Amino acid sequence: MRVSGKIGGPLVQDHVALAEIELYGELMIAASAAAEDRLSSARIDEVLRVGSDPAGRGAREKARPAV
User: Percentage of residues in the chain with pLDDT exceeding 70?
Assistant: First the structure.
């Protein structure tokens, strides 16, 4: 078996996967706080900020400090 990279080497992050995980978490929080059994399409769009920002992440990106 061949393993590439070194132990303790640089970490590689998949930014798309991390963004998807964050959005999924936001949906889970919204669903757990909802009074109804299912989130409406409009509520899902609101949670995911669909159509609110061409970049799709406006308020969240502005609120985070640059790394």
Answer: 60
